[in-house]
Specification:
heterodimer; A: 210 residues; mainly alpha; B: 478 residues; 0% strand; globular
Chain lengths: 210, 478
């Protein structure tokens, strides 16, 4: 089951690398949130209690409802164009993503011989981190960078759940809250940027240099 | 006592949120800062032991909490006179609220004994400082805030991967790794898996270097420090970098008894040398004096990281350097803030003849520049000398060559623009020459300079004892 979710997670990453619509990016965030919630719920099947529900519920509220809605609102308010502008051709981006995923899976496989890890969730989480970084580096719009950051965070979450032990609940909750506030602050900053700078390209942010 | 001081911060945050009166906010924040300073002083002297299992009470925490609390106290002290003179009115609203939040987050970073809490709180420090960077509400400050928020968040996320690798390294070791306690990791370091440890160290080093401000991830930190108001810049240079350094030091403490210690040392030393190199390049043509000071922070943090990487005597020098540098940077940014408020520009070419327009600030700026360049009798001189001596008698004595070369040129190239700012006569300047009134900011700067000198001359036993205990905790001998 665990592996199935991870593979679905990887598919969402592939979709992320071929699509050129902003809305699709937001759906990917939603899908990843749902997958992570389901994964947490499956984890707690054996030892069910109210406490085990807190984390999945918070995760669901933040990653599936609040954050995507907030990003949609920003896009709507600021009238951002609904296409993704890339500094790289779509096809080469896909190739890059596929290549790095292959490398990550291969390396995780060879690493798993020394330490016991679940290869598929581990490698999917790590791919998500790397692809999030690619999105930040190779796509142009600032709002897309925020989405890239969120994909990275999702990857870390999946990756953390691939470990054989549980991270303490308080820390997970704190991390979620942090992410939410970061996105919130980034949203405010984006609002301000759009009212002070004319466009939304990263090329606009060139005032500060040595 | 810990609970008392923390609850005071929370109460003060609530007051700052509900009451709009700046004076009231200032007094309650100052009271909180004072209580925190007293608490951290008692903690530093060893008169207070929290004895709570998730609170770290080793010498590292005791020393760093005091350093941070000291800088914070002075920054709050001068904040009212800074706010009165400053024209930006929008930024004032949440100024003290965010400062209190900053103190809470930093205290939590330093006192946490667990990787998880450390991570959550270091992210919280970014969140608290980011809106403060945007104090002037200008395009530059907005861009600086965005870059800092984004790059620091990504960096801290990378550091979290490193932490997860560390917990993977503990697989099969005989302790409860899920709590992620530093002390457990240190105790059982020999059982950890070196491959994962190495990967984890790389991630944590790269991730945290965005917050420590060492090359090559220093750019966001430079932008943020140079575009924020000077009390905040002092806070960032004097305390935020120190709290980020705590994480790196904890990780180093874990790896020092494992086979990858040599690798970690090389990483630290090359990061430090690279920071010196970037500062060296920048100093050839500086245009903005706050940026110049921010680069000077990169230089000194680089030197500290080199000292830590070399170990032994250089390690001791690095810790003295952390203490002195935090005080010295605070004075420098206070004076730079006065200059900025007088001339309304950060461009070096537009600032001239400071010594006749604002003589007190000018002299303080000059003296603190001498202090940061390592001229006796100020602290930096002694700590730098210790670091140099440590490097010379270590197994990597060749490092001393590039370090001295870079520092010499940084000093020369930093002195040129600063002396121009201080002495050059410019007839076109439409400023009234006159006497400067002595303000809180000057008194604070003089007090800090005195503190810097006295600390170096009398070298209190307790400071020495703390630093030597840290050396022992890191498993090193002189």
């Amino acid at each position: 089951m665990f592996n199935l979710f991870s593979i679905l997670f990887c598919l969402s990453l592939l979709y992320l690398s071929v699509t050129s619509r902003l809305n699709a990016y937001i759906s990917v965030l939603r899908i990843q949130g749902i997958l992570l919630t389901l994964l947490l719920l499956f984890h707690s099947i054996g030892h069910f209690s109210v406490l085990t529900l807190i984390l999945p519920l918070t995760l669901f509220t933040i990653k599936v409802i609040l954050v995507p809605r907030y990003i949609k609102k920003i896009i709507f308010d600021l009238e951002i164009k609904r296409t993704i502008e890339s500094s790289m051709r779509q096809f080469s981006f896909l190739l890059l993503v596929l290549f790095s995923m292959a490398v990550i899976f291969f390396v995780s496989n060879s690493l798993s011989k020394s330490v016991k890890i679940d290869i598929i969730p581990f490698a999917s989480g790590f791919s998500s981190v790397v692809i999030g970084l690619f999105v930040i580096m190779l796509r142009k719009k600032l709002i897309v960078h925020v989405i890239g950051f969120l994909v990275m965070e999702n990857g870390i979450f999946l990756f953390g759940s691939a470990l054989s032990f549980k991270i303490p609940l308080m820390i997970e909750l704190g991390a979620l809250l942090d992410v939410f506030v970061v996105v919130f602050l980034m949203g405010i900053a984006l609002n301000k940027i759009s009212s002070t700078f004319s466009g939304f390209d990263i090329t606009e942010l060139r005032r500060l240099k040595d | 006592m810990l609970v008392l001081s923390l609850s005071f911060i929370v109460i003060s945050m609530m007051i700052c949120y509900f009451f709009k009166n700046i004076q009231l906010q200032y007094f309650i924040s100052l009271l909180t800062a004072l209580i925190h300073l007293i608490f951290s002083f008692c903690f530093f002297m060893g008169w207070y032991d929290p004895e709570i299992f998730f609170v770290s009470d080793d010498s590292l925490s005791r020393l760093f909490l005091f350093v941070v609390s000291n800088v914070y106290f002075w920054v709050v002290l001068i904040s009212l006179s800074f706010l009165k003179k400053s024209s930006a009115s929008n930024g004032k609203k949440y100024y003290f609220l965010l400062l209190n939040f900053y103190l809470l987050a930093n205290t939590s970073v330093i006192l946490s004994n667990s990787f998880g809490v450390y991570w959550v709180s270091i992210e919280a420090t970014t969140l608290s400082i980011a809106p403060l960077i945007y104090y002037y509400r200008s395009e530059e400050s907005l861009e600086a805030m965005w870059k800092y928020l984004f790059i620091a968040s990504v960096g801290v996320a990378l550091a979290f991967i490193g932490i997860l690798f560390f917990s993977l390294a503990a697989e099969g070791a005989a302790f409860e790794s899920s709590d992620l306690f530093f002390s457990d990791f240190v105790k059982h370091a020999k059982q950890l898996n070196p491959i994962w440890l190495k990967a984890g160290f790389i991630f944590i080093f790269v991730g945290l270097s965005t917050k420590i401000g060492i090359a090559p991830a220093h750019s966001a930190d430079i932008d943020a420090t140079s575009n924020s108001p000077s009390p905040i810049a002092a806070l960032m240079s004097g305390s935020l970098r120190v709290t980020a350094l705590v994480g790196l030091l904890r990780v180093l403490q874990i790896v020092q008894s494992t086979p990858i210690y040599g690798f970690a040392r090389i990483l630290l030393i090359s990061g430090g040398l690279l920071s010196l190199f970037f500062t060296f390049i920048y100093m050839f043509y500086p245009k903005n004096f706050k940026r110049l000071l921010a680069y000077s922070s990169v230089e000194h943090l680089g030197l500290i990281v080199i000292g830590i990487g070399i170990g032994g005597l250089a390690f001791i020098g690095a810790f003295y350097h952390i203490v002195y540098n935090s005080i010295n940077k605070t004075v420098l940014f206070f004076s730079a803030g006065n200059i900025h408020q007088k001339y309304q520009t950060r461009k070096i070419e537009k600032v001239s003849d400071i010594l006749s327009f604002i003589p007190i600030t000018g002299w303080l700026f000059l003296i603190s520049f001498f202090a940061i360049s390592g001229i006796p009798p100020f602290g930096i001189f002694f700590s730098e000398l210790t670091i140099f001596e440590g490097i010379l008698f270590s197994d990597k004595s060749w490092v001393l060559g590039p370090v001295l070369f870079f520092l010499l040129f940084i000093f020369i190239n930093m002195a040129r623009p600063l002396f121009k700012m201080l002495y050059r006569k410019d007839q076109s300047l439409a400023l009234e020459p006159g006497r400067e009134k002595l303000t809180f900011i000057h008194i604070a700067a003089i007090a800090l300079l005195l503190l810097l000198t006295l600390l170096a001359l009398f070298s209190p036993d307790i400071l020495q004892k703390r630093i030597f205990t840290i050396l022992n905790d890191f498993g090193m001998r002189l």
